[in-house]
Specification:
Elements (H helix, E strand, L loop, with lengths): L9 H9 L3 H23 L2 H18 L9 H24 L12 H6 L14 H14 L2 H12 L4 H8 L3 H19 L4
Helix pairs in contact: 1-2, 2-3, 2-4, 3-4, 4-8, 6-9, 7-8, 7-9, 8-9
Amino acid sequence: MVDGVEVPSDGELVRAVRRGDLAAFETLLRRYQRPAAAIAYRLLSHRDDAMEVTQDAFLKAFERLGSLSQPERFKSWFLRIVSNLALNRRRSRALRKMVSLDAGVGDDDEQARLDRPDTRTPTPQEIATAADLQRLIAEEIDALPEMQRQALVFFCIEKMPQKQVAEILNCTVEVVKWHVFTARKKLKEKLGDYL
């Protein structure tokens, strides 16, 4: 109950949508639009891609709502859709950025040069400003293995309970703890000089 108004649970809203109540889906959309966009952004580091993934996730959730066996678990089910779509988008972006194998090592092709990853290590002077440090942290988080990155983003950045993270990632709480621990350790090793 909020301000004297009874707030329907996710399960009640899902059942209402299944009965054809589109307003109930709008309520779910308003309830989870911000967390979904935040998670997508943390996984993609690109605002437009995050917004597109969020919209795609709501569309997919609406289309597949009939397959949700436990309506009360809409939130974790939906955030798993967001996470999976964001990771698929990351993979497709990475594939598009790869350099063609046909491009020669000494090739001066501008596009091939732009598509090559920057492998130089920044010096402490280059990351002196807070914005540069934030960018560096985001890059290191992006470089983490998928499960570690997801666990870290959901638990440490989005402040979700470990149990909920486990539901979203379809694993145990112990596995979540391990991935968060490992991700933090890797970040400390990579960023220790800057923090």
